[in-house]
Amino acid sequence: MEHPENNEKYKGLTVNAGIEQPSSVNPYFKRKARKRELSVQEFVEGITKGDVTILSQAVTLVESVRPEHQAVAQEVIEKCLPYSGNSIRVGISGVPGAGKSTSIDVFGLHVLERSAGKLAVLAIDPSSERSKGSILGDKTRMEQLSVHPDSFIRPSPSAGSLGGVARKTRETIILCEAAGFNKIFVETVGVGQSETAVHSMVDFFLLIQLAGTGDELQGIKRGIMEMADGIVINKADGNNIDKANLAATQFRNALHLFPAPESGWTPRVLTYSGFYNKGVKEIWDMIYDYVDFVKANGYFEYRRNEQSKYWMYETINEQLRDSFYQNTVIEAMLAQQEQQVLQGSLTSFVAAKHLLDTYFNELKK
Ligand code: GDP
Q: Residue 278 CA: which ligand 1 atom is closest?
């Protein structure tokens, strides 16, 4: 049968020469001038006026690794510091699937309805380093909050070590507070180290748990439970209510075995359903009770001061570490010293001393 595909000249898809493009489709179109970079003063004025676009731009600078951006960011943060601090900072943690996004959406709407002010949702996601793109704090996961005029949602900074990511989130808190956000949520995945980082920047640490097969207590690290000021069991709805209540009892019993927290507050365990918006008010009653309690006994101030101290040392440590490891002479020596340690021709301590001495000598040059 005669068919074009049987012809050996047939090439399948052919692209014909097109027509010449007109010079411009829209004669009135003007290319936008590149955005001028704002000055420190303009950033600070914009932020303290509550301009969210300028706030976002400042956060982008905080997250940038470029030294010139960092220099501006640090100055902006310093100038915003006097306007910050007037907020309730809540850390929210839970394993993937625990219902963090669903819950933050309803928690957020609840607090915005309940009292005046604005809410910022930030995140610390340790996995972002590997995946180069964080999902925590993503707007699409919080459908109602993301379109609320009084909310600001920012995904986790993605570059750098956990310490670096956490520092950027802490700095973002300062900027948000200066912009009038008086409720701050910091979300993290409940898998380990990142909780410590979140704990070091919030007033209340809320742990979201699920009722499961009865062995839920085994899966959760003791250290994380000890950090929690409140444990809430999500998905207490439908057939799951009894299981959730049972899990709550188990958590309460387990908490009794821990030493009393420094704050003097006894952590509470509640059940709720984020999806059906049940028991959400009680969670916020608990958080407000806590804040009243620790403001009255002085722990609120104390914890914030301790956190400032912690971040001072963290920043020093981070910069010293970077300065050491990024030193070109050290970089060149490291592998070779490591090799000698592995071969047993140098002890770890001698190698470390050797490297540090070299580093300090380099600094003197
Ligand atoms: P995240 O990974 O911790 O952010 O969890 P998500 O908020 O994405 O929730 C994971 C899944 O659990 C989704 O399919 C939600 O619809 C569901 N979910 C969240 N909260 C509840 C709840 O209170 N009850 C029930 N039955 N399902 C829920």
A: 23
Distances (CA, A) of 178 to 75, 152, 235, 311: 14, 13, 35, 19
C-alpha to C-alpha distance for 185 and 89, rounded to whole angstroms: 6
Ligand 1 atom closest to the Cα of residue 102 is 7
CATH number of the domain bearing residue 49: 1.20.5.170
Mean pLDDT, residues 36-53 taken together: 94
Same domain, 280 and 140: yes
5-15: pLDDT as tens digits? 667 666 666 66
119 and 225 inside one domain: yes
pLDDT single digits (tens) 101-157:
999 999 999 999 998 999 999 988 766 444 444 456 565 678 899 999 999 999 887
Total domains in the chain come to: 3
| pLDDT tens, position by position, 291-312 | 999 999 999 999 999 999 998 9
Neighbours of 48 (CB within 10 A): 18
Question: Would you say residue 19 lies in a domain?
Answer: no
User: If you average pLDDT over residues 30-37, what whole number do you get?
Assistant: 68
Q: Cβ(284) to ligand 1 under 6 A?
A: no
Give the DSSP letter string of 260-293: PPTT-PPPEEEE-BTTTTBSHHHHHHHHHHHHHH
**Is 97 touching ligand 1 by the criterion CB < 6 Å?**
yes
CATH number for 185: 3.40.50.300
Determine if ligand 1 sits within 6 Å of the CB of residue 277: no
Q: What is the CA radius of gyration of the chain?
A: 26
Judgement on whether residues 73 and 89 belong to the same structural domain of the protein:
no
The residue range of the domain holding 343 is: 329-365
Residue 225 domain-assigned? yes
pTM value is: 0.83
The answer as to whether 322 is a domain residue is no
Cα of 199 from ligand 1 centre, angstroms: 23
Confirm whether 228 is domain-assigned.
yes
Atom number of ligand 1 nearest to Cα 141? 8
**Residues 132, 168 share a domain:** yes
Q: Is 34 helix (H, G, I), strand (E, B) or coil?
A: coil
Boundary residue ending a domain (63, 83, 103):
83
